[in-house]
Amino acid sequence: MRKLLLALLLLLPLTINAEESKNGPLFMKDLVNEGDFFAPWGVGVDIFTMKQDYSIKSLEFQIPGVGDIDPSTIGVKNNVQNVDIKLDVWVTPFLNVFGLIGRLNAHTYVDLSNVAIPGLPVSLGTLPVSYDGTVYGGGANLVYGTDKWFAALNNTWTSTSLNGDFDSSVKSFTIQPRIGVIVDQWTLWGGGMWLDTTEKHSGTIALPVPGWPPVPFNIELETANKWNYAIGFGRIFSPRATLYFEYGFGDRKHTLFNFTYRF
């Protein structure tokens, strides 16, 4: 039982503290040994980075002298850096819920080099769309395991209030299944991340053509590849301080670092 709880410490993460758990909001306490259980409240810091491809869901972009543009000729890449503070609480021994607030900085690159314009000897190049803003979100973790293995399912919803050169918005929903093994104070796991992101931008852009006026545009982007793989490990450094690191690879790459203190 204790090894399982140590795994949960690292994965979600948690800290064992029997006396404080008696005063927490935990339901179904009879299903666990309170002497091995953990403090209900946690506050943590997440540092997250991601690189992925987008597909174009809709596009309104009229270039002078050019008809409708085929979205398949436009490549879109996205880089994200995110730091947030997360507050979580255990509602039952198998359900953890959380809220988060943080700061996002991102760059979306719209490659227009394959868009042909009659009479124009140069390509339009790549349009960089940079933005930052405040991230709000919440979610829930479901967990189960034994003293040698564990499984978890993390679900997160986020929305971002953005600043930048354009009218922009980003919303996402993430599902992260994980299964791993327990070895003393360490846990090792593998799994994946399913990500559904909708990103919208509208405004006007200046094209690299002398004498052309700014061109209005409206574009809606979505995640091109919903799934990628992930591996990770975690460590308990003290009864209250835990951290873990995860690396995602495949069609999308991400890194996730978390440090949490429980009380």
In short:
The chain has 263 residues and is mainly beta.
Highlighted features:
Lipocalin; 263 residues; disordered N terminus; elongated; 11 strands; 2 helices; eleven-stranded antiparallel beta sheet; mainly beta; 5% helix; single chain
Domains (count): 1
Helix content: under 10%
CATH fold description: Lipocalin
Number of helices: 2
The CATH architecture designation is Beta Barrel
Could you tell me how far the N terminus lies from the C terminus, measured between alpha carbons in angstroms? 21 Å
E-strand count: 11
Percentage beta strand: over 45%
- CATH C-level class: Mainly Beta
What would you note in describing this structure?
Helix content is 5%, strand content 63%. The chain is mostly beta strands and 263 residues long. It has one domain (2-262): Lipocalin, CATH 2.40.128. Strands 1, 2, 3, 4, 5, 6, 7, 8, 9, 10 and 11 form an eleven-stranded antiparallel beta sheet that branches. It is elongated, with a radius of gyration of 23 Å. The two termini are 21 Å apart. Residues 1-22 have low confidence and may be disordered.
Map the helices and strands:
Blueprint: H1 2-11, H2 18-21, E1 41-61, E2 75-92, E3 95-111, E4 126-145, E5 149-164, E6 167-183, E7 186-205, E8 215-223, E9 227-236, E10 241-249, E11 253-262
Antiparallel strand pairs: 1-2, 1-8, 1-11, 2-3, 3-4, 4-5, 5-6, 6-7, 7-8, 7-9, 9-10, 10-11
